[in-house]
């Protein structure tokens, strides 16, 4: 049973999914700077290297220069203007990514204090599926899950029932 608190539930589901599809002997390139989830992955015995915080809309060289068997990107693609170029630049045969799903009852997230912490995309599942297909990936497994919040109100209630995240494991089509 998952704990209904942020970020425990999201991290637990992601780790269960990762352990299901990735061997600890495989090298992982994790999109984005070192973060709490990549640290959990390392603590669990995975070999993880993060990108350096470069603007991936303009520079995908890290994806082409690093040696890795698995590509991960957890809650990163919603911040990119052009996730197509990033997914197209991945050089390995396996990827695990998650994105926030578009919620019909809430606007896309935009921080009022951080100009970089905003969502350019919040996907419907079919949109991410299509993006992966167009960049040469075949979805092997996926899961959607909710993101409850500890607030009172109509929208917080809806978050108990409405999937917020979409987690995908895909393999490169050869």
Which descriptors apply to this entry?
single chain, 174 residues, alpha/beta, Rossmann fold, 6-stranded mixed sheet, 29% helix, disordered N terminus
- Biggest sheet record: 6 strands, mixed
**Overall average pLDDT:** 85
What percent of residues adopt helix (DSSP H or I)? Answer: 25-40%
Number of strands: 6
Number of structural units classed as domains: 1
Number of continuous helical runs: 6
How would you sum up this structure, described in words?
GO terms for molecular function: methyltransferase activity. The protein is an alpha/beta fold and 174 residues long. It has one domain: Rossmann fold, CATH 3.40.50. Helices cover 29% and strands 23% of the residues. The protein is built from six helices and six strands, in the order H-E-H-E-H-E-H-E-H-E-H-E. A six-stranded mixed β-sheet has the order 2-1-3-4-6-5, with helices on both faces. Helix 2 links the parallel strand 1 and strand 2. The longest helix has 14 residues, at 8-21. The protein is globular and about 50 Å long. The termini are far apart.
Write a compact overview of the structure shown:
With 174 residues, the protein is an alpha/beta fold.
